[in-house]
Here is the input.
Amino acid sequence: MPQPPNMQQMLKQVQKMQQDMMAAQEQLKDETVEASVGGGMVTVVVGGDLTVREIRIDRDAVDPDDVELLQDMVLAAVNEGLRAAQELATSKLGGLTGGLGDLGLPGLGA
Here is the structure.
């Protein structure tokens, strides 16, 4: 018969994990990723906290007769920047939640 989990030990582990998560989230605020499309015509900088920090548009990308192309490039760059920032956040925070499986609770370390 398996031993029931030690609740005091579980609580300590969860509290430590919360502290580690908060520290990692604070660090993510200072990190950025950059995505560009159209050979650098549109560049987006996104923070690790998933906020768009900067959008740079090359002067040559502005064509009054083809605004749709510029809109598509901005949209693609923002989406790529958000995807890269989410990947960064997952890599930083993902390892922290893996410790839940050590608590003997099924389904929490997967």
